[in-house]
Design goal:
By secondary structure, this protein is α+β, with helices and mostly antiparallel strands. The protein has three helices and 15 strands. A five-stranded antiparallel β-sheet has the order 3-4-15-7-13. Strands 5, 6, 8, 12 and 14 form a five-stranded antiparallel β-sheet that branches. A three-stranded antiparallel β-sheet has the order 10-9-11, with no helix packed on it.
Length: about 260
């Protein structure tokens, strides 16, 4: 077989394999793409509480430091050039003792026939613990429904729409407006780590609600950590469509979110 036909043969094999793989809906889920020390398609990487790490599983990842003091975070966000370095550590004055640390994925638009999904994440921590990947579902606010709800609205990605959240600065609380996205549903992947200092893989299956009042039109994922304070790393945060049977199989293998009792 000539080199030309051999290359075509292998290209066809690769495409056939790819065609059989479910599509990962999360853009830059492995945090490999980016520039200026920011991974592409993820918001919230401020260079202090969240940085773009190089020791992922494998490659790049995002690194959360929940031991950063709240006042240091505020000073850094106001003017990074004037930030003079970390202040004296006070355990209960850290971001981990209060709002925590997170990043936002790009929003994922859903189809009318979407029902079952599988989410995955690789996680490592210097302190063990149980960080999360929060799954948030939203409905578009129309002219007809505007003003019916009051919430804290955030704009995760500059130039994009505002999304309602449960937590955030009270200064961002307001009535909903047309073009906003109102949170209608939520779920959580709990990543209960067995031990500090090693990468662990987590998977969970879930299904969307059928009730129109709660069924989301759009999702985004929010890796999140707070306590105990320490270093948390996330990599390979993926989401794919699945079948009811796949969801049941994945969930039957999940680790308990409860800590094991010492004998």
């Amino acid at each position: 077989m000539s080199r030309y036909y051999f290359a075509i043969f292998w290209a066809c094999c690769i495409l056939a394999c790819m065609a059989g793989q479910p599509e990962n809906l999360v853009r830059n889920s492995g945090f490999e793409k980016g520039s200026d020390e920011r991974p592409a398609d993820w918001s919230g990487v401020d260079g202090l509480t969240v940085t773009w790490g190089r020791n992922g599983n494998p490659g790049r990842c995002v690194v959360f430091d929940t031991s950063v003091q709240q006042k240091d975070k505020k000073a850094y966000q106001e003017d990074p050039k004037k930030y003079t370095g970390p202040s004296q550590k006070r355990q209960y004055a850290s971001v981990g003792a209060h709002e925590g640390v997170w990043v936002f994925s790009q929003p994922i638009d859903l189809r009318d026939d979407d029902e079952y999904f599988i989410i995955t994440a690789d996680v490592k921590s210097s302190v063990g613990g149980g960080p999360f990947v929060l799954i948030r579902g939203f409905q578009l606010v129309t002219e007809e429904t505007a003003g019916r709800n009051n919430s804290i609205f955030q704009i995760p990605h500059p130039g994009g729409p505002a999304y309602s959240e449960q937590f955030g600065p009270e200064s961002q609380r307001r009535d909903s407006k047309a073009g906003d996205y109102l949170q209608s549903w939520r779920h959580t992947l709990v990543c209960r780590l067995d031990a500090p200092g090693k990468w662990e893989h987590f998977e969970m299956g879930f299904n969307l609600p059928k009730d129109k009042r709660f069924r989301p039109q759009r999702l985004w994922l929010k890796p999140y950590a707070y306590w105990p304070e320490g270093i948390y790393e996330f990599d390979n945060v993926t989401l794919r469509r699945a079948t009811k049977e796949e969801v049941a199989t994945v969930n039957s293998k999940r680790k308990s979110v409860l800590k094991k009792e010492k004998k």
